[in-house]
Amino acid sequence: MATIEEALDQAISLHQAGQLRHAVSLYQKIIKACQGQHPQALQLMGVALNQLNEHPQAIDALQKALSMDPGSPEAHYTLAISLLTTGQTDTATGHLKSALKHQPDMHQARLKLAVIYEDDGRMDMAIEQYMRLLRIDPNHIPSLNNLAGLLIGQGQLDQALSHLTRVLQVSPDHLPAQCNMAMIHHAKGQTQQAIDQLKSACKSHKTDPQPRYQLALILKQDGQLTDADTVLQQIIALHPKHAAAWTRRGEILQQLNDPGQALMAYDEAIKHSPDNQIAGLKLKRALALPIILHDREQVDLCRQTLTKTIERLVSENAQIQDPLKEVATTPFFLAYHGRDDKPIHESLGKLYRQASATLTWEAPHVSQPRDTSRPIRIAMVSKYLNNHTIGMFMLGIAQHLDPKQFHLSIFHVSPKRDDIANAINAHAASHATLAPDLHAARLQIAGVQPDIVFYPDIGMEPMTYFLAFARLAKVQCAWRGHPVTTGIDTIDYYLSNESLEPTNGDRHYTEKLVRLPTLAMYPSKPQPSAELLPLDHWGIDSGSHLYLCCQSLFKVHPDFDLILKDILEQDASALIVFFQGRHEHWYQTLRNRWKQTVGPMSRRMIFLPRQPFPHFLQLVQHANVILDTLHFTGGNTTFQCMGLNKPIVTLPGQFMKSRITTAVYTQMGLSNLIARSPSEYVAMAVRLASDPDYNNTFTGKIAKNNDVLFANTSAVDELQAFFKQALEQ
Predict the structure, then answer these.
(1) Which of 69-83, 350-364, 578-592 reaches the highest mean pLDDT?
(2) Crossing angle of helices 584-597/558-570, nearest 10°?
(3) Is 650 helix (H, G, I), strand (E, B) or coil?
């Protein structure tokens, strides 16, 4: 009969040959023969069981091995791997630290510990581990590449570039480093260089999905959606079960306004994803709302689908570990349906609170008494603090907030910088770009110990939406940048205006509605051009009555079509001008809809390309009348058109999002162009376009009263008073 040592050698040989079951069986016999007292056999059996994905049994064997030999770094490391697989991250972290205590140069343990810290948003600790590993081995390629990826996420591009350069010096064909290098080029605005580098990597690695996937991401971010989709289809042809490629296809097809194909792509992603990601993908699928609506029936269907999906996930007690990564979207387009969005937002907020324990987090300073001797600390958090509608209005607040009373910290979700972003930053006490990881971003905001967190636009993108579930300050409020309730129970106040809200407006919000008296101040009044380009510059006949609709195409609700049709019927000289959307598919979908709803007259409705801002303002000056959209009206463009004294016809509805232009007129003390019905809207628009005297009357009234929109700091004074009052309650 073989000795224990001979049996162990045989078991190890079987193990190394990949015959794991036979190896485990022999390890068990050795352990039994030794009455359970053979730590090496227990440890090796734990390794084999881990390789067989039998993690509970592996954990049991490794714990027994460590009870006999607590100084074994290999046992600590292998136990940590099994614990991580079963979700026991904290315990696994402890065993990795123990492994490193006994063997500081155990590279795989330190690398795994760094990855855990990085995944948990503890970026400084992750960097420390990578740097310690690199002090032991300066050319440790996984550490160099991972550290570079982390630094890219933090915007430290030059440091990341240094590490990647070293990787490629040691290993010129290292594909992950090549992909990260392309991401640096993209982050620096060198998009074509990034694309060229990834295309070259695709040629060198013909079947590897990584460079193609990275290429698709960059093309997608650059707005080259059709090209990105082509690359994703190439990946899927080679790797039909590539769930991430199917998911990105779903996102692209939704943006191209092909919701049917988007849903099919998400179905494939769900089919090929691990169980712990399916709940997030099911919700993401239901949130793939159409961008350009076909009809009211489509509105009903997609809202019913979303509601039922939320209800089903709640009843199943579904779990979504990291919604920022797994869902990565918001119900943004819900706001353009012309319906009451509160029930869906509220149920969605409750689902996330139940399904994602990681969203519930409180900054340590919140429970501490506030030092009333210092200025009130306000954290303003948004992706759009730049040349965007949000940035324009927030600039007015930043410029006039009293620095003696308020300490303003700006947190950008996007690294984009322009004149507006720089101006906002210049008026802040501090400014920073948030890390892309949710917990790391929370720690950044909590680091300034804000008394108030001010979110201008919750719901427009995922980061601020999911940040809002945490308690980062005693007072947390949403502004009306996205004019619907958040549905999130940690947002205390919704800041709106008296003239924006109907009398029953409170019932549309889960937050406490605050009706400030004055609309937010627009930072500057646009100046009219002394000399205008002729209309034929845009291919427009100067004899036409020019009706201009400045709104994004997803605001053009099917209910608006009949108004447009009536205008065309009543004014034979009418030409209605829209601007093309971000993607050709948007206006083609709208054009096809109008063929059905408006008929042959839709030929007098044209799309112009997006214009440089000076040319846009000249078109506004040329227009006879500005048409406001139904259900969700103009915001930024309303102020711009009013600043140029142009009359806008508007029809307010029952929700705040349909009453913005009405509120602007109310603040100016004008109400004559606020329609009370679709027929009155049409009559006003046609008369403004065809009766110069009538038009001039309103142009003069707007010119006389519009300064109140641009030079009125009362809105900031009222906001400051609210901040003080909210903290006292």
Answers:
(1) 350-364
(2) 60
(3) strand
Strand (E) or helix (H) holding 199: helix 191-204
For residue 67, count other CB atoms closer than 10 A to its CB: 10
411 shares its domain with 379: yes
CA distances from 416 to 222, 254, 260, 573 (A): 13, 24, 33, 43
488 phi/psi in degrees, rounded to 5:
-105, 130
* Edge-to-edge strands, sheet with 493-497: 430-433, 406-412, 376-382, 452-455, 475-479, 493-497, 512-516
Residues contacting residue 365 through CB under 8 Å, at least 6 positions apart: 446, 449
Q: What is the pLDDT of residues 337-371, one digit of tens each?
A: 999 999 999 999 999 999 999 999 999 999 999 99
What is the residue range of 327's domain? 286-359
For residue 338, give the amino acid letter. Answer: G
User: Among 359, 286, 282, 350, which residue's Cα sits nearest to residue 322?
Assistant: 359
Residue 77 sits in a domain of what CATH number? 1.25.40.10
Residue 486 and residue 459 in contact, taking contact as beta carbons nearer than 8 Å:
yes
Query: Is residue 20 situated within a structural domain?
Result: no
Interatomic CA distance for residues 628 and 589, integer angstroms:
20
Residue 473: pLDDT over 50: yes
Could you tell me where the DSSP H helices lie in 488-626? 558-570, 584-597, 613-622
With CA atoms as reference, report the closest residue to 563 among 641, 638, 675, 672.
675
Query: What does the alpha-carbon distance between residue 560 and residue 556 come to, in Å, rounded to a whole number?
Result: 6
Residue 487: which region, alpha, beta or left (left: phi > 0; alpha: psi -120 to 50)?
left
491 contacts 477 by C-beta, under 8 angstroms: yes
360 DSSP 8-state letter: -
pLDDT tens profile 516-536: 999 887 778 898 988 999 999
Could you tell me if 368 and 478 lie in one domain? Answer: yes
Residues 157 and 167 in one domain: yes
Residue 453 forms beta bridges with which residues? 379, 476
Question: How far apart, in whole angstroms, are the C-alpha atoms of residue 303 and residue 659?
Answer: 23
Q: Residue 633 — very low, low, confident or very high, per pLDDT cuts 50/70/90?
A: very high
Number of domains in the chain: 4
How crowded is residue 480: how many other Cβ atoms within 10 Å of its Cβ? 22
Sign of CA dihedral 227, 228, 229, 231: positive
Residue 669 to residues 522, 685, 702, Cα–Cα distance (Å): 17, 20, 9
Sign of the Cα torsion 381, 387, 390, 394 reads positive
Are 641 and 655 contained in the same domain? Answer: yes
**Chain center to CA of 321:** 17
Residues 430 and 410 sit within 8 Å (Cβ to Cβ): yes
Q: What does pLDDT average to over the chain? A: 92
Alpha carbon 312 to its chain centroid, in Å, reads: 24
DSSP states of 140-193 as a string? -HHHHHHHHHHHHHTT-HHHHHHHHHHHHHH-TT-HHHHHHHHHHHHHTT-HHH
Which of 525, 527, 524, 523 minimizes the C-alpha distance to 399?
523
Contact 484, 334 (CB under 8 A): yes
What number of other Cβ atoms are within 10 A of residue 570's Cβ?
Answer: 15
Q: Which amino acid is at 590?
A: L
**Within this chain, do residues 135 and 215 fall inside the same structural domain, yes or no?**
yes
Closest by Cα among 120, 121, 109 to 72: 109
574 bridge partner residues: 545
Q: Of 317, 335, 359, which marks where a domain is finished?
A: 359
Average pLDDT, integer, range 651-670 = 95
Q: Compute the distance between CA of residue 131 and CA of residue 154 in angstroms, rounded to an integer.
A: 16
**Sheet of 625-627, strands arranged across:** 605-608, 574-579, 545-548, 625-627, 648-649
Q: Does residue 211 surpass a pLDDT of 70?
A: yes
Give the global pTM. 0.86
